[in-house]
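Fold this sequence, please.
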Amino acid sequence: MQEKMDRKTVRWHQAFYAGMQIELEDDAERLEFVQELILGNEPVRLDMLVIKKTGDLPVSKSIGKIFRKYNVLEYKSPGDSLSVDSFYKACGYSCLYKAITGKADEVKITDMTLTFLCARYPRKLISHLKSIRKFSVEESTPGIYLISGAAIPIQIILTNALPRKEYLWLTSLSDHLNDFREIRQLLKGYEQHKADEKYRTLMDTIVKANWKTFTEVHKTMCDALEELMKDELDQKKQREKRSPFLSSCQIWVKFLPG
């Protein structure tokens, strides 16, 4: 069985799309999620576009507080940095979406926002925005940095710095999970939603990216369970029947790469 997954095989963006829908599901009826929107005839794609369909009420969660009608999201996988060029590319894509969508000026620039999501603090970019562009960059809430001075509201979200209690799924979209308690919390959360395709997609990516840690958790859980239920298991084995007590060890096994 493979112990280390090739990072290139991990489908980060598909999981991110599922994770954003999960985190904003309290407002799902008022939001439309568009994945990898193709702009024009050239292979130019937005990572994600979130459209507020009705009303002026703010999105419930802090990551969506700045949202207007058209909200462009640029996501960086763990290990990828949010560079100065990445920033301008996303700005360009946002402007291109405004320019080519609908009739003339149908998408108002005043109805747009831009959100960057990454795992690592983009020190060089922040320095550039402050010193070169003279933008103001302030941390509004833990993990969320608001950028003022651009044509549209912009925010940078550090997924690793978001409150885990509020953002279990986005904070778990990482290849550095190593806390067994967090893994168990994640498994418990998944068990409640395992029939939902979004959760299955996200969990699949998280497990593949943290294969070694999940393997260790699985072994620890099953070893402890076998010791606790030793008498019962011995009786079951004698009757040549599989013990139901091991079922909890298999909650996530189907997600592990074979």
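The radius of gyration is 22 Å. Residues 211-228 form the longest helix (18 residues).
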